[in-house]
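Encode chain A's predicted structure.
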Amino acid sequence: MRKHNATFQGRAKLALRDSKRAAAKYGVFDDLTLDDVLYTFRIAEGCCNYCGEYFGDDLQLEHIFSLSTGGHNTLANITTACAACNLKKRDEAIMTHIQTNPFDIELLNALIDRIAYRMGVDRGEVAELLELQQRDCRERKYKGKGVS
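Encoded structure for chain A:
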């Protein structure tokens, strides 16, 4: 018999469980479902949405706007990432992340399109949200250091 996390459905269930625990820990909005997670992994077709490399079933669920900085646990806020990209990004704003790491502009455009579609807004509104996230993250980073 296969281990639960060795199946596609099992890994998706574990990713959902972990994201729900994190959402509860940070007190953020959470309406993510197993179908949302399965859909996100399936449309990724095994590719990391940050570096574009193929990892097959070895992808992680990634929150574009991190839960620790107030991002929601929703379909609009999730994507897939390889372990290395997920670890590198951590709770960094996505715009900061792409400025400090190699990033394919086509992947960014596809990510923005997916966010806009899932949120039911246009690309301009997503760009504004991403800029706001970057500004908020920068302010939090320097808040305790006396830098403005």
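The radius of gyration is 15 Å.
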